[in-house]
Amino acid sequence: MPESKEEKIRRLNQELEDFIAAEVAKSQEKTGDEKSFEEILQEIETHPAFMKDVDYTKPLSKEMEGLMRIKYEQQDPTCNAEAFKEDGNVEFKKKRYDIAVDNYTAGIKIKCPDKTLNAVLYSNRAAAQFYKQNYRSALQDAIIARKFKPDHMKAIVRGAQCCMEMKKYAEASLWSDLGLAIDETNTVLLEIKQKAEKLRSIQEKERRKEEAKERKELAEHKKLITTIKSRGIRLAGLADKGYDPLLFTNVELHNPSGAKVYVDAENTLHWPVLFMYPEHTQTDYIEDFNENHTFEDHIYHMFGPDVPPASWDLDKKYRPENLLIYYEDKEKTTLHQISPSCTLLEALQNKWFLVDAGTPCFIILVNNSRFQQHFVKEYSVIPS
């Protein structure tokens, strides 16, 4: 049998309650003395507007004591709340939304027993918050408004609009369905429903595309880690944890160029490499150092006879035949000298070498220079 209107409304209400439960879960953290959304909803359950009978044998809540006091003082809380609502409406029309929110809040705090008036106060405050672009606060007020009056159409429309602004298209569609089950001719909800379904489809495609991209990247990382592991290369931060691809991405150096280690189609590793010249506090960054290339391949490219000297090399000492290459074992304060004819892979496979932040680093010094002789005194030097 087809679903009746009442059954549909009950089903949609339950689905919306599930959505509200999810929103409550997201708002568990609160700052300072601010109440969580869950606490606000719990307070609503004890609101005088929901109380049918008063048990005078038990202590009265502060709210009920207040209502009893107002009663005997011959003051009408509903009139007071109504006055705050009207003041808020005046400010709202003037687009002074901050003041409107304050007025609606003052009306809410009175906790008058009129359910419809409370629904209007929350719904109106939701509207003011919406125009302040406080969409989450507006959505929460729309939810509470429906606690007082489940078929309050303005609250339902506002809830749908908030979800649209927050890109919660599935939820916007749900709010629209709920409102259309009550009034199937509501043009605002019909438009939101149509737009939400279209954007939901696009959002779902983007999500699947992003998931496919993440799976591809994960597969590439796994291949990369397998290749590094097969070479016997040690990575700082991972040496004792195993080569988890997700961990490896955390220790990669995020350099401005975006260069990072990768494995090509021939299963060859390419590393970003840093050359450091401590005598002049200078560095060179090689974005793509093929593991099978030697250090002299790059040294000659950078300091060969046909290459002008670096601007900081005033004495023109940095020539291939004058240079010594080291890597540093920081834990043991040891310098390991590397032969220029050594490949990058051979250097990285040394059992003492530890790749830090995904970027192998090497120290370049001028042989027999005063700086080199002073620098090496701080270390134990292991020749190539």
What this model shows, in words?
This protein is α/β, with parallel strands linked by helices. It contains 14 helices and seven strands. It has helices at 5-26, 37-45, 62-72, 77-93, 97-109, 115-131, 135-148, 153-165, 169-182, 187-231, 245-251, 295-303, 344-348, 370-376, and strands at 262-263, 269-277, 282-290, 323-329, 334-338, 361-366, 380-382. Strands 1, 2, 3, 4, 5, 6 and 7 form a seven-stranded mixed β-sheet that branches. Strand 2 (269-277) and strand 3 form a beta hairpin. Helix 1 (5-26) runs antiparallel to helix 9 (169-182), helix 4 (77-93) runs parallel beside helix 6 (115-131) and helix 9 packs antiparallel against helix 10 (187-231). The longest helix is centred in the middle third of the chain and has 45 residues, at 187-231. The model has no long low-confidence stretch (mean pLDDT 85).
Summarize the structure.
The protein is an alpha/beta fold. It has helices spanning about 5-25, 35-45, 60-70, 75-95, 95-110, 115-130, 135-150, 155-165, 170-180, 185-230, 245-250, 295-305, 345-350, 370-375, and strands spanning about 260-265, 270-275, 280-290, 325-330, 335-340, 360-365, 380.
